[in-house]
UniProtKB/TrEMBL annotation:
Pfam families in the record: SWIB
Name of the protein described by the UniProt record: DM2 domain-containing protein
Boundaries of every DM2 domain copy: 209-286
Ranges in coiled-coil conformation: none
PROSITE patterns tied to this protein: SWIB_MDM2 (PS51925)
Amino acid sequence: MDQQKPPAKKRKLTDKNIPNAVLHSPEFSVDSQMYNDLLQMERKLDWTITRKRVEVQDAMGRPMTTTRTLRIFLSHTVSGQPWQQGENGASDGNVNVETGEGIPAFQFKIEGRLLEVRWTCGARRMHRTLSVLPQLPNQRAKDRVPPPKFSTFVKQMVVEFDRDPAQYPDSNTVEWLKTPQNHTPLDGFTVRRRGDALTRARVVMYLDQQPELYKVHPELGSILGIKEETRAGVIQALWNYIKLQDLQDKVDRRLIRADAQLRGIFGAEAIQFQHIPERVNRYLMKTDPIVLHYTINPSIPPPEKPVAYDVEIKVDDTGLRSRMSHVVLNMVPESAKELTKIDDEISLHVQSLNNSHLKRTFLHSFSADPQAFIQTWLESQSRDLDSVLGSGPSEGATLRQDDLRRSEYFRLPWVEEAVAVQEGLRLAAKAGL
C-alpha cells in the first residue's frame, strides 16, 4: 500500500528589506532610512543574543563554583558520671559492663550545616545574612531541595584525644576516610569513649571540595599572586601572566619564552605550551587541613550551646547554573515563536508595500500622460509576446502591428497558454530559481 506523501510545507516570506524603488524615492527617504536603521539594530541584537547564548552554554559545561560558609558544631554529652549518679540516687556498685550503664563515659559530637545566604533590604543598602535553614518565600515544603549533609564536604577526618593510654586503653585516635563503600551522607559524627577525666580533643579535617583545591607553592604563588586555587585556575592564571608579559614566541606561537621569574619554574629558557600543566603540577600541594580544638570536662554539666566554627568552602553554584539554564531554555519555546510571528507580519507588510508602490507607479504614470503610457504599455506587451512566441524582427517579423492593435488577436486559443508560460518564467526569474 502506497504511503501518502506529506503535504508540502507552505513557504514563508522572510524578506524584510524595502524595495529599492521605495528606498531611493525622495518622498520616502527619511522613513526608509529609519526602517533600515531598525533592521541593522535588529541584526546586531540577534548576533549579540546568539553569541551570549553560546557563551552561557559553554559556561554551563565548566564547573561553576561559589564560596559558601560551612558552620561546624562541636559538643559533648556525658553519662554515668559521679555527679549524675548522686543526682539519680544510684549507688556506685550499680554497674553493667555489657551495656555500659553506670560506667563514666562521654560522647563527642561533630556536626555541620551549610549556611544559606539571604539578602534583606535595609534603609539604604542590602544586608547579607546567613541562616542554617533556608527560608524561601512562596515555596512549598515538597519543592524545597534538601541541603547537602555534612559528610559530603569531608574527605578525611581524624579525632585525637589527649589522655593517658595506660589509664584509658580505648583507642584515642579515630579516623574516618570517605570511600565508595561508606559514602552515605551523614549530618555528623559521634565518638563515644569511657572516662571521667578532663580530656582535650583535636579534630583534623580535610575538606572535599569540587573541583579539588590545591595549595600553590610560594615560588609560583608569589608570581601569580595566589595561595590556593584549583588546577585549572592556576593554569589560567599562569596563561594570563604569559599573555600580559608577551612571552609567546613571535614565530612559533606554541613556544613559551621564560622571563627571569619563570625561568626557575620552567627549568629552561622556553617550553612548549602543552608542557605547562606538567610544570604546574609540580608546584601544587595538598591544602592544609582544618584543625579544631575542644575541651571535654565530664566532672561538670556540658554547656547548653555547642561551639561553632565557620569555614569558607567552594561548592557547586546550583543557583547560578539553574538561572543560566533558565535563560537558555526559556528563550526557545515562547519567545522564538513570538519573534517568528512578528517577522512573518513584517514580511507581509513589506510585500504589501511593494505591491502598493507598483500600483501607485502605474497609476501615477497613467495620469501624467495617458496616451504615451498606453503606447509604452502596448510596446512592452508586444515585446513580451515576441519573447513568448520566439519571433520578432530578427525572425522575419511574423507579427504585424495591425494584428496587435485588434483585440480579437488576443482571444486566440494559444494566447492564454503563452501568457501563463511567460508569467511563470518571470516569477521564476524573480525568485531566483
